[in-house]
Amino acid sequence: MPDLLNRPQDVGVIIGVITKATERVPQLGKTQFQKLVYFLQESGVPLGFKYVIYHYGPYSFDLSNAMDTLDTLKVINIDTDEAGYGFHIRAGQFSNNFPPSAEYAGKIDEMLAKLGNLRPAELEVKATLHFVKKVLEKKGRTDRSAVVEKVKALKPRFETEFIEACYDSMTDAGLIN
């Protein structure tokens, strides 16, 4: 796991994502945050989190542990939703000790412009599509139908048409080719 406390610039990236995302959405939850950081890292921001496929798509246990640490240190706040619908992630009392990354501000803005307003379920499918496409490319399979088929197998609760629409919108946004 990247030791974020020894890499304040990376904490600044996380604070930047939280600050800018909470300007766009009324509630930034853990699923959304995990996927936004996944896409940011995939865009070239070297945070070093390892991702695996999990219940809601690509998930980083390292990022989850880092979030818990940052919450304990009051750099970020992770509060349970009073109505029981997930979590609210916000910049914390000591977030000013880690100024948002100027170096990656453009990447954060670009990623949030493409993905920042999406519902968690749509982010889940899009991140899963991206992850699966990368895995299948390593095996020499790059066709859309193979990716959609695999994601449908992983995410049977989503209609094939929805998965295909997500794939197409990601292609249009330049998130997959």
Describe the protein.
With 177 residues, this protein is mainly α. The chain has helices at 8-24, 30-42, 61-72, 105-115, 120-138, 144-154, 160-172, and strands spanning 52-54, 57-59, 76-80, 87-91.
Largest sheet: 2 strands, antiparallel
Strand content: 5-15%
- Termini gap: 30 Å
Question: Helical residue percent?
Answer: 40-55%
With helices defined by DSSP (H or I, 4 residues minimum), what is the helix count?
Answer: 7
Unreliably modeled segments: none
Basic shape: globular
Short summary of the structure?
With 177 residues, the protein is mainly alpha-helical. It has helices at residues 8-24, 30-42, 61-72, 105-115, 120-138, 144-154, 160-172, and strands at 52-54, 57-59, 76-80, 87-91. Strand 1 and strand 2 (57-59) form a beta hairpin.
Core attributes:
177 residues; mainly alpha; two-stranded antiparallel ribbon; globular
SSE order and pairing:
Layout: H1 8-24, H2 30-42, E1 52-54, E2 57-59, H3 61-72, E3 76-80, E4 87-91, H4 105-115, H5 120-138, H6 144-154, H7 160-172
Antiparallel strand pairs: 1-2, 3-4
Helix pairs in contact: 1-4, 2-5, 5-6, 5-7, 6-7
